[in-house]
Amino acid sequence: MGEWSPAARVRGVGTSIFTEMTELARRTGAVNLGQGVPELASPATLLKDVAEAVLAGNNQYPPATGFPALRTAVAEHQLRRYGLDYRPDGEVLVTTGATEAIAAALLAFCDPGDEVLAFDPCYDAYPAAARLSGATLVGVPLEADGDGFVLNADALRAAVTPRTRVLVLNTPHNPMGKVFTAAELDAIADVCREHSLIVVTDEVYEHLVYDETPHRTIAALPGMRERTLIISSAGKTFNVTGWKIGWICGPAPLVAAAGSVKQFLTYASGTPYQEALARMLGSVEEWAAELRGTLRTNRDLLSDGLKQAGLRPYRAEAGYFLQADVRPWGYTDGVTFCRELPERAGVVAIPTSAFYQGQDAPSWLVRFSFCKREESVRTAVEQLVRAR
Ligand SMILES: *Cc1c(COP(=O)(O)O)cnc(C)c1O
């Protein structure tokens, strides 16, 4: 084969710190609190329903917009939880995980040279999808405030330019474990209405909130439904991250635009999973209450353990992740800390700087995940305390 090089839009997208840390965990046998892959059980009825759907022969393409009963179940879920009324036919689209939903949305709305805003740090699929569309992701830093992270509305306003098309919001937030407050969502909505921005809101952790601040969706605020796509997924809610079933809800024209892209990314996927999830989603609240209990226990164990180990954990109100300041151990750089941690304590974590787009990442932050079996978290904590 002759000389070739990858297309400009994928240059620099190569392997990441996640690959390096996962490999390090494998090689050293360290407890892996790096990637957010759950070690927790899924609802037994859901698994049984999938097996039955497969054996019943429901294994061909579903409709491109998704299995109708799942679209109906998603619409009922949004109405029940958020008071938002979406038509299953035209305002709900099933996707190959939230990841495809994000890519389809950004490819549908962004032209080369456009800008996408997201809060920094952010999930790594956002800058990658923006880049595939030819747009640039501009990070607006969340600011440390006590043991949490908060919106700086002035910084958000200042980041809007005539090229800004989309704001990607993620609440509850990965990697910060933050739930955006009502006041923060109001301030974000103000900016979006003022500048006619489309909002893509990633709510895959909508059911995994542990403290007082409830999850709210920005789509429910005045003037926001018409400009917002809500994205969620079964992966985190039911511990089935390998199934890759997600969905988008929004006004018909925006959903149609994302759907036209989605059609040629994957067309459709996961017929038996879609069928089983259609049945499960109606009773998600009971399931989620139990899962929240498990994750809250893990969060508390890890947070207390990190304190005991002499590190400084931040508040994690939701999701799978907890941030810690590693400077008390004499490190100023999370990357070095994470490279040395398997040897020193038999634990793998991810430097939070990997999630920042902007220049001023706090280099001393490290992300630990707690979506693991309780004994994994206990072992990690014991080893961290010993390594202090
Ligand atoms: C895990 C995760 C996703 C990916 O969801 P899939 O349904 O597996 O594609 C999207 N956004 C955030 C914030 C995540 O943490």
TrEMBL record:
Domain Aminotransferase class I/classII large: 31-383
Top-level taxon: Bacteria
MF terms (GO), sorted A to Z: transaminase activity
Pfam short name (any one): Aminotran_1_2
InterPro entries registered for this protein in UniProt: Aminotransferase_I/II_large, Kynurenine-oxoglutarate_AT, PyrdxlP-dep_Trfase, PyrdxlP-dep_Trfase_major, PyrdxlP-dep_Trfase_small
Cofactor requirement: pyridoxal 5'-phosphate
Name this polypeptide is given: Aminotransferase class I/II-fold pyridoxal phosphate-dependent enzyme
Organism in which the protein naturally occurs: Streptomyces fildesensis
